[in-house]
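Please go through this protein, sequence plus structure tokens, and consider how the sequence yields the tokens. Keep your notes short.
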Amino acid sequence: MLGVTTRTLQRWRVTGEGPAWVRIGVRLIRYAETDVAAWKERHTYAHRAAELAGGANG
């Protein structure tokens, strides 16, 4: 859905950059589709200037 590596997701969990996640047991990490979709929407920009200005979706 996001097109990133497992390592990127791990790094995002450490830095707090990625979508919300849940730990199941000791090693299993899962993401709710709704959380991933919401995160993706908040990080989608119409163009680079909108991203730099901090405005979502242009």
The longest helix spans residues 6-15. The CA atoms of residues 23 and 29 lie 5 Å apart. The mean pLDDT is 89. Helices lie at 6-15, 33-42, 48-53.
